[in-house]
Design goal:
flat, mainly alpha
Length: 142
């Protein structure tokens, strides 16, 4: 495994956005009257937006770490099988969500679809090892 390369600005931005989101979550209701918050939805959404962007950046950082660590190291056959399992989980999750028999199947289908989608996004950024085909050996006696 190689040492993952993470741009230094990414963790700094994540921490900064989380801190700003927590500060905004406590500061906005204390400073702005409730009547103004009820009319101005964007002002109420600032903490959510800041924390949501921090979560997205954390996932992006995870993708960068995994991709730089295992790029060109995964066996192409293993890569293909993992991709097929992830796609099968997506299909099963969709079927679970669109059935009308039981609510637990809907809930599990949604969870499976969510995890499979995140897995697909991450795995699609991994590059499998290249298969080098050697030309057939030429017989000197021929």
């Amino acid at each position: 495994m190689r040492r993952p390369r993470v741009p230094i600005g990414l963790p700094i931005a994540i921490v900064l956005l989380l801190i700003l989101g927590i500060i905004a979550m406590n500061l906005i209701p204390a400073v702005v009257p409730e009547a103004v918050l009820n009319r101005n939805v964007l002002l109420s959404a600032i903490p959510f937006i800041l924390i949501f962007i921090a979560i997205l950046l954390t996932y992006i950082m995870l993708i960068v770490i995994v991709a730089t660590a295992i790029n060109d190291l995964v066996n192409p056959r293993l890569y293909t099988w993992v991709m097929r399992v992830i796609i099968a989980c997506v299909i099963i999750g969709i079927l679970g969500m669109f059935q009308s028999i039981a609510m637990p199947l809907y809930t599990r289908g949604f969870q499976l679809l969510f995890i499979a989608t995140l897995s697909y996004i991450l795995w699609s950024h991994v590059r499998p090892a290249r298969v080098v085909e050697r030309p057939p050996a030429v017989d000197a006696a021929a």
